């Protein structure tokens, strides 16, 4: 319906009809008419179907709650499974690397042994051969103090050799 | 939010949401659909309600979004029908159908049917302010916009409404000031 202008006459000049906005009289009257008509419509057509809605909403809410719990459970399970998987893969990777390292080290040890044998055979660098190949044999079966003493002797011997070469 | 909380929320807030839906949609059936859909959204997505604002301002926000979506959908349908009925005389289409519900006709006789023609922002602000009697701060929370924007929308909304009414011409008041008057007249 159209705006009823005569309402504006009911409002005293300068009267403030809204809490913050300073409407003109016409606009304030328009606002009042909107309020009246909204009230009229609401009284004429009161809300209905609350009971049915409550039942439906409760069902939906319960389902949503279950679903969210299931989702949370699924997420937690997924994260756990992923963690376990990553851990297993990581462990396997580390194990493989260790195997590779030990495989790599084995020829080095063999090679070192061969070098020592060559040194012994050629009479060159005898010290190196003794240090690598003989140290372990010498140290086996000795006490800690004895091992330290032997190592000191070897070191001093090596230093003596160095001074001689100079 | 537990199902028990949802039931309580429905008891407390359904009437006001339904009233806003009625003013927005213009028919009790559409209002039923909108209000019920609003609370079903609450039931489904109660976890998204963070509690930063009041529950009812959150519900108003949901209602307005749903209503805007419905209007867009309706607008699209009307556009398609307009294309289909291109040859039909315009005046025939302008006449209300014989089966137009009395409830809708009554809504059309109020200022709210003119408000429905305003842009979304102004329309929603006017509904929340003058039908739902929310404060500006509450409207800002429901619409998710600054306080100044709310005031501006209300001011310009009223201004646009006044211009629209002036353009249409002033007519006699059809809706009674008090509902009781109407009940007597109807009988």
What's the arrangement of secondary structure elements?
The complex is a heterodimer of chains A (166) and B (187).
Chain A: H1 25-44, H2 50-122, H3 126-139, H4 144-165
Helix pairs in contact in A: 2-3, 3-4
Chain B: H1 3-25, H2 28-44, H3 55-84, H4 90-94, H5 102-108, H6 112-115, H7 120-131, H8 136-143, H9 147-168, H10 179-186
What labels describe this entry?
heterodimer, A: 166 residues, mainly alpha, elongated, B: 187 residues, disordered C terminus
Characterise the protein shown here:
In chain A, 78% of the residues lie in helices and 0% in strands. Chain A has 166 residues and is mostly helical. Chain A is elongated and about 115 Å long. Residues 6-17 of chain A have low confidence and may be disordered. With 187 residues, chain B is mainly alpha-helical. Helix content of chain B is 73%, strand content 0%. The model of chain B is unreliable at 91-99 and 172-187 (pLDDT under 50). The chains are: A mainly alpha (166), B mainly alpha (187). Chains A and B meet through helix 1 and helix 2 of A and helix 1, helix 2, helix 5, helix 6 and helix 7 of B.
Q: Report the uncertain regions of chain A.
A: 6-17
Rg over C-alpha atoms of chain A, rounded to the nearest angstrom? 48 Å
The helix content of chain A, as a percent range, equals: over 70%
> Whole-number radius of gyration of chain B?
18 Å
pLDDT below 50 for ≥5 consecutive residues: which ranges of chain B? Answer: 91-99, 172-187
Structural class of chain B: mainly alpha
Largest interface comes to: A-B, 41 and 63 residues
Q: What is the helix fraction of residues of chain B, given as a range?
A: over 70%
- Number of helical runs of chain A? 4
